[in-house]
Amino acid sequence: MSKWECTACGYVYDPAVGDPDNGIKPGTSFESLPDDWTCPQCGVGKDYFRKVED
Predict the structure, then answer these.
(1) Spatial distance between the Cα atoms of 41 and 47, rounded to a whole number of angstroms
(2) DSSP H or E stretch at residue 3
(3) 45 Cβ partners below 8 Å, 6+ apart?
(4) What is the pLDDT of residue 53?
(5) DSSP state string for 5-51
(6) For residues 35 and 7, is the Cβ–Cβ distance under 8 A?
(7) CA 6 from centre of chain
(8) Handedness of CA 31, 32, 34, 38 (dihedral sign)
(9) Nearest-angstrom CA–CA distance, 32 and 1
(10) Three-class SS of residue 54?
(11) pLDDT at 49
C-alpha cells in the first residue's frame, strides 16, 4: 500500500502503521480512511494529502 504525505506539514500516513491514536488500525489504506479523518499533526483534511511514489 502506498504512503500519503500531507502537503501542509509533511506528515506521512503509512497504512502499515495506521493512526492508532485516532482509532485507525494498521493495514488501513488511505482510501479507506473516513472522509472526516484529518492529519494528526496539523488538522487538515484528506484533500491536502498526495501519494508518495515508491
Answers:
(1) 15
(2) strand 3-6
(3) 37, 38, 39
(4) 82
(5) EETTT--EE-TTT-BGGGTB-TT--GGGS-TT-B-TTT--BGGGEEE
(6) no
(7) 8
(8) negative
(9) 12
(10) coil
(11) 98
Q: Cell match 506521512: residue?
A: 12
Which grid coordinates are listed for 46?
484528506
Question: How far apart are the C-alpha atoms of 10 and 25, rounded to whole Å?
Answer: 21
How far is it between the farthest Cα atoms of the chain? 26
> If the chain, 54 residues long, is cut into consecutive pieces of 10 residues, what is the mean pLDDT of each piece?
97 98 97 98 98 86
Residue 45 contacts residue 6 (beta carbons within 8 Å): no
C-alpha cell at 54: 515508491
Residue 15 burial by Cβ neighbours in a 10 Å radius (0-12, 13-18, 19+): buried
